Amino acid sequence: MDQSTELLAKFGVSDVIHTLNYIIISIGYWHIFKKCGVKKIWSFIPIAREYHISICADREKEGRAYTIISGIYYAIRVASLIFQKNTIILLILIIPFVGIYITIIITEIKIYLGLIRVFERKSRWVWLFIFLEAPTALLWGLSSKFVPTKVFVDYNKNEAAKGLGKEIAAIDDGLTVNINKRTAIDFFKKKTLLKDIHMCIPKGHMVLLLGGSGAGKTTYLNAVTGYEKADATIKLDKFDVYRDYAKMKYDIGFVPQQDLMRGTDTVFMTLSDAAYMRLSADVSVMERENRIARMLDQFGLMAVKNNLVDKLSGGQRKRLSIAMEFISNPDLFILDEPDSGLDGVVARNLFESLREIADEGKIVVVITHTPDRVIDLFDDVIVLAKDATRTGRLAWYGPVNEAYEFFGKNSMEEILLTINQKDEGGEGRADEFVEKYAERMKEKVG
Asked: Distance of CA 377 to CAs 208, 244, 355, 359, 372, Å?
C-alpha cells in the first residue's frame, strides 16, 4: 500500500476531498484579497475568510452577520455531537440548526452578489460560487480578467497625520488628559480609536466636545472617566483617575443621553436613592438630606418633588437626571446630549444651569448636536476629527472665539463640516487641522 492509499484509508476519501477543496478555495481567495487590498492571510482562516470576502464585496454588514451566525451554527453542531445519544435534545437542536443553516446560505448569496457587482459580472455567477466555490474562487483569483472596480484599502496602512507625540505637564487645579492611544479589536481587526490627545482643562470652564460620527467622542469620555481605560494618564487635580479610581469615583459625574429612572418613583425618592449610591458611606444623614434639598432647589424641582417621574415634562426629567449625578458634588461633570428632545427655550435654560455649575469652580464637558444655539455659554471647545486612518485625533482645544479664527469659520456647524470626511458630506480637511494644531501645541510646550 503506497502513501496516498494509506492516507485515504486513514482519513477517508471525503476528508481528503474536503481538505483539498478548502485549500483550493483559500488559494483563490488569497488572490481575490490581493486584488481588493485586503490582507491575504485571512483567506486560510475559517469564518474570518468569509467576513473578509464581505469586505471585498462591499457588504461588511452582511459579513458581520455571517460571522455571528456561523459561530452559533458551529456551537449547535458541537452540542449535537456531545448529545448525539440523547434523542430529545437532538430534536430540540434540529429546529434552530436548520433555520440558522438557511440563514447562512441566504447571507452567503448576498455577499456573493455584492462581490459579483464589485467585479462587474453577471448575477448568474452566484450559483457557481454556491455549488462550485473552489474552481470559481480559483478562476476569479488567478485570472487577470476578473478585476474589482474599487480597492478596499486597509486604513491602517495610510499615513497618519503628525501629532504632538508626547505628554504634556499636568496642572494641579484641573483636568489633565494625556491619551497616547486607545485601541480595540473589532471583527478580526485591531483598530486605533483615539491617538495623541493631550490637553489641560482648568476648573471653572464649560467645554463643548465637538466631532462628527465616529470621531471618538464617546470613546474619549470613557477614557477620561476611567470607564474604558486607554494607554493614557488622566489626572484630576493631583490624583490619577486610573490609579486612584476608588477615591476619584465621587469626583466624576456622568449623565448619559438616556436616563435610567423608575417612572413609578417620586422625584424625592429618586434623589434619595441617588444620594445613597453616589455619596460615600461616611456622609451623615443630615448632610445627605441637605444635599437632596439643595439639588431640588438648584435644579428647580422643589415644586414637583412629590410628583412621579412619569408625570414630569421632558425638561424636568433632564434636570432630575442631572441632579442625580451632581448630588455627589463632582469636580468633573460630563453630559452626553442633555438637550436631546428639548425645544430651544427649555434647552437654553438647561445650559444656563450648567453654566452656573461651571461658575462654582467645576469642569463641565458637554456633547450636543445643536451647539451654535448655546455656544456663548461655553469657554472652550474640543474638536475631535477622524484622520486618514479613521482614528480619532485632536484638531483643536481652546477658547471658542479662537477656534473660529483657527478654522476660518463662523459657526461650530461649519467647523464640523470642514473636518468631516468627504464621503460624509464634509470638506475632508481633518488631517490638515490635526497637524496644524499639533504644530501650535509644539510651540507652546516646547
From this structure: 10, 32, 6, 11, 10
Beta bridge partners of 382: 209, 397
Q: CA-CA distance, 316 to 254, in Å (whole number)?
A: 18
Instruction: DSSP letter for 279, please.
Output: S
Q: What is the dihedral of CA 326, 332, 333, 334, to 10 degrees?
A: -150
Residues 35 and 103 in one domain: yes
> SS3 for 195?
strand
Positive/negative CA dihedral, 270, 272, 275, 281: negative
Do residue 200 and residue 286 come from a single domain?
yes
160 within domain boundaries? no
DSSP string, 362-394: -EEEEE-S-GGGTGGG-SEEEEEEE-TTS-EEE
Please give the model's pTM, rounded to 2 decimal places: 0.77
Same domain, 180 and 266: yes
- Give residue-wise pLDDT tens across range 376-407: 999 999 999 999 888 999 999 999 999 999 99
pLDDT tens digits for range 204-215: 999 999 998 889
Which runs of consecutive H residues, i.e. helices, occur in 170-284? 217-225, 245-248, 267-278
Helix (H, G, I), strand (E, B) or coil at 440: helix
Burial (CB count within 10 angstroms: exposed 0-12, middle 13-18, buried 19+), residue 120:
exposed
- The C-alpha R_g of the chain, in whole angstroms, comes to 28
The C-alpha cell at 383 is 474638536
In terms of domains, do 13 and 98 share one?
yes
